[in-house]
Known about the structure:
- By secondary structure, the chain is mainly β.
- It has helices spanning 6-18, 26-30, 273-277; strands spanning 33-47, 54-67, 75-90, 102-103, 119-131, 134-141, 144-145, 148-149, 159-167, 173-184, 211-221, 224-233, 237-249, 254-266, 293-305, 308-318, 351-360, 369-382, 387-400, 410-420, 426-438.
- The protein has an 18-stranded antiparallel β-barrel. Strands 7-8 form a two-stranded antiparallel sheet.
Amino acid sequence: MHKTPRARIALSTLGAALAVPSIAQAEFIEDSKATLGFKNFYINQDVRNQDAPRAEEWGQGFFLDFKSGFTEGPVGFGLDVLAMHAIRLDGGGRAGKADIERTPGTMFPLESNGKARTDFGRVGVTGKLRFSRTEARLGTLLPKMPVLTYNDGRLLPQLFHGAQITSNEIDNLTLTAGKLEHSTERNSSDSHGLSIGGANSGRKARFSNEFYFAGADYKANKDLLLQYYYGNLRDFYKQHFFGLVHDWKLPVGALKTDLRYFHSDSDGKNESAAGRAEGYVSSGANGSSGEVDNNLWSALFTYSLKGHALSAGYQKVTGNSDFPHINLGTGRTLHLITNGQIGKFASAGENTWVVGHSYDFAAIGVPGLKTRLMYFSGDDIDAAGSDNREWERNFRVDYTVQKGLLKGVGLAWLNAATRGNDGRDLDENRLVVSYSLPLF
């Protein structure tokens, strides 16, 4: 576990900005934007096949998002600040205590006595530099790439800390590269080293402070996007991603094709038996040595017509390890067609079928109301003695108030149920109320 000197970064970056002559600061100030956000979040998790109390939490989050413009000149400088604070409204009882009906879950940090904290917060500061059509960022980042995506499934989002460069110098081509060193998990104010499933628990927990990434998004034409990304968590894994997204307008409706392929292999200490003995291991199939060895491909097809969208897809995992990704056990979002509300369907050997339906009620005159239903069915999970199975159903309703005093207020209900023969049978509900107020 490691704390980053975010305060020192903030002061040094702000000092550099203030040192720029006032004339050059004009666009820095005039192009600045600030938004005050509110998020009320409730979650209830009920394990149906075990005698365990429900995990239940409720909280209110506040977010101040400031984005400056860039100073004038061939090289522009700017500063972004994201401050957030969470207040516990109900955190259940005490974790691990017998004979209680509810316990804290994954929204608030736990005190030494097993109770959820009454509040917590964090401040993320990002210095930025722009030259021509290239932008560099240093500090707090919210990555959204095939090889790494931040998670926003609780009251406060997961944050990452490092550097990133994004270039659009060539038309229709976006190039991205950078390095991440730490993360701040969604139920924490501290920064942590990076790790994968199988390596971050127990006495031999191991972490890395070096995640390198690079990628290209090429818009071949208005209907075709081609992608390549590379990710490397030092001493754990190397990963290549290839993607294709095609939109085809039909005489009736439209068809979207989404093809994805990941190839992952071991890196550094995970490559050697000695390194794995130290704890640099991956979760994986029965009998696996802990070395990363994974291939994952998927195809998802979505047909859209008059507010309806019907989806069907298939995902296949091969190799001796689970799909490797940065995971500290507190929540993750994966660039997979099987990224369910609870499960990810990315275990060694797993085959998964996906079907879904979404509807935008604007098609019948009710703008702002949307529903989505997804079903995942996975089997052939490699396990001791036999192949395991699992399934999950996700249902979501979203509504944004369109007019009146509450215009812009967002309401969401997320319901999920997952079952399998190798773990917990879990039911989960999330209720979210959100609102953003532009300040300037």
